[in-house]
Amino acid sequence: MESGSKSDIFVCNSLIDMYSKCGSLEDACKVFKNMPIPDVVCWSTMIMGYVKCGQGSKALQLFFQMQREDVQPDIITFVNVLSACTSSAALEEGRHIHAHVIRYGFEYDIFVGSCLVDMYNKCGSIEDAIEVFQTMSTRNVVSWSSMIVGYTDCNQGEKAVSLFSQMQLERVNPDRVTFMAVLNACASTEALEEGRCVHAQVIEKRYVSDVFVGSSLIDMYSKCGSLEDATQVFHSMPDCNTVSWNAMIGACVKNSQEEKALVLFQQMQREKVESDNTTYVYVLNACARLLELDFGTYTHMLISRSKYKSDFFVGSCLCEMYAHCGSIVDACRVFNNMPTQDLVSWSAILLGHSKLGEEKSALKLFKLMQQAGVAGDAVTFVSVLHVCASLAAIKEGRYVHLKVIQYGCESDVLVASSLIEMYSKCGRIDEAERVFNSMPILTLTAWNAMLDGYGIHGLGKQALRLCDEMGKQVQMDSATFVTLLSACSHTGFVDEGHCYFELMSPVFDVATTVGHYSCMVDLLGRGGYLDEAEDMINRMAHQPEIPIWMALLGACRVHGNVEMGERIALQVLELDPHNASCYVLLSNVYAAAGNWESRIKVQKLRKERHLHKEAGCTWIEVNGEVHRFFVADTEHPRIIEIQEELRKLSLQMKKAGYVPDKRFEIRDREEGGHSSCQHSERLAIAFGLISTPSGSQLHIFKNLRVCEDCHTASKYISRIAGRSLVVRDANRFHHFVDGICSCGDYW
Question: Which of 134, 142, 152, 728 is the most buried (most CB within 10 A)?
């Protein structure tokens, strides 16, 4: 081998090729380096060895070393080294190689030209690829296919399909790669008719039995929404491998036919076709959507016995499946056993806790995710902002907002809409407006979020003005009218709400739903039009649901209509005999009318049936810490100071003319011996007054509706203490300023 004879060089070249193909680059390098004068064939073979072993950077280094040693490359050298440039990071090296191609006069070679087109496409420079393609004097199927792939990969599917048509006109026969590329282009643009034309070409050119082309046909039809065609292709294939089974199962999942996907998976198991990570990802997604925990657990068992038990993507999907199915313990177990957690698994476990009502855990997980250095995306931010809105956690919400900006997601319309919702539900309507006004493009979701914000804050006039402006820019949908009617209900705009309700179908082409009727019943009931509200329920085309009857029952309490209240309560209890809220509302109807005997009977009946009403809880955030209070709470470390503040307030309120509502005093004594001055919202307000600077605004949040007596007391406290109180109860926000509430005592 040291002689450098042609026979020795041939042997060395064969050894380099053999070692490279066997994956032993170290041995290949030894042979190459021990050669006294390697020729261009050896250089080219060694370059290709690096490429085949996934070491493109070393292949490029060897090529440039070859230039320094004045070894003239040939066509094979360029074909080999161009295949090493496979990403945008190698674009500059690719351009240098292109310059060498021109220098050595190979720019018109059909094989080198095709490789240049392919290289530029893989490096993300479609413009350079087009330029090379257009200057080629002759083109083969490889160059045409490379250009079609390039257009498809840069989301220019229409041009890819057009180029395929041009290829047909020039009588260049497509091959497997061409068909796969153009079918992918049809799929990306949902060009069903063009896809069918390509299918006809596939049949004509006899590629219909090719497993990979067949799988591409299935994928194209599924993405174009024609599952029937996809199924026909699948059943017509003579041989189906894992790829084609995956394509069909994926087609079912993509077209919301998850049950069929699971049936296919079972059939695949019976036919003993090996599943891969793609199969498991599709099946787990189907289980998640169907909430099929048992099938998901069965699939997990299969995965644990396969080589994919440690697969990164499969692990993330397992975590997501368990979280969606409500099995948070299993989701956490999978999550904790993953060697590394990605954004998908973090988002899944976070969303799982959120759906189960474990919002605090979800927020803790988000912070842990940030500490782990995992960047959030739009899906994560939407989920965690919803949690912040639910908890009225303004501190955490602002922290998430900072992360949104940090990761460049503030322009995402869903994230921005979630920010609007979060700030609105945290009582910061001004900050919600700021986000809304800063959005470059206002989508329907953003308009609805802002409209809802105005509604829950009782800003009816602003809601109506926004709705007028919204109608000029976007097509309003069903959710818009639910939000608008709710806003009218909160502010007593009965005529305006009724007008919009009547215009929904004929003018805005929005069909009325149970949700719209529920809002209208609430609107009419709050306004005192109880008979009209009941008549509307009876005239509904839909079957009345419990929330509609409960809305009317609540109106009976407000307006003291005992007769109707009893009738409505019977309707509710026929539908749901264990509805504790119905008993509570009916007892309040009796209390509002002073019928204490009937109230006691209802309460006794509720307790006998072991139906428990939700305990009232109020919370306030001070210096980043949330403080929770229950009725007659004695657990708070500053309870003595709180009670002293309440005593002082009671004296000052009495001097100012406050008279406790005797109805509620009687009710409270009956239910536990505590007066309304010991209600959770009063305790929270008193704590806020002694814990925050004088004159600062207090934000209070309660899980139930604020009672009338506490509402009256809050007005007095706002004037006496000189404080603005923003109180969110189960229905809406109340802004108390100088003895006046924004709701106008209408809630």
Answer: 152
End-to-end Cα, the chain, rounded Å: 97
Instruction: Considering only the C-alpha atoms of the chain, give the largest distance between any 2 of them, rounded to a whole number of Å.
Output: 117
According to the model, what pLDDT value does residue 673 have? 42
Type of residue at 258: E
Q: Say how many C-beta atoms besides its own lie within 10 A of residue 402's C-beta.
A: 10
Distance CA 71, CA 32 (A): 15
Order of all β-strands in the sheet with 617-622: 625-630, 617-622, 698-702, 725-728, 733-737, 740-741
* Nearest alpha-carbon partner for 626 in 691, 580, 718, 694: 691
DSSP one-letter string for 575-591: H-TT-HHHHHHHHHHHH
- Cβ atoms of 536 and 524 within 8 Å: the answer is yes
Asked if 455 contacts 418 with a C-beta cutoff of 8 angstroms, the reply is no
Name the region of 105 (left: φ>0; alpha: ψ -120 to 50; beta: rest).
left
Task: Tell me the C-alpha distance between 188 and 153, whole Å.
Answer: 10
- What the block records as the tokens of 154 is 């840069």
What pLDDT score was predicted for residue 663? Answer: 61
d(CA 747, CA 130): 66
Query: Which residue type occupies 638?
Result: R
pLDDT at residue number 102: 93
The answer to whether 565 and 574 are in contact (CB under 8 A) is no
Residue pointed to by tokens 């976070």: 350
CA distance 662 to 665: 5
CA distance 469 to 439: 15
Q: Round to whole Å and give the CA distance between 614 and 671.
A: 14
Per-residue burial over 354-385, b if 16 or more Cβ lie within 10 Å, else e, is beeeebebbbebbeebbeeebebebbbbbbbb
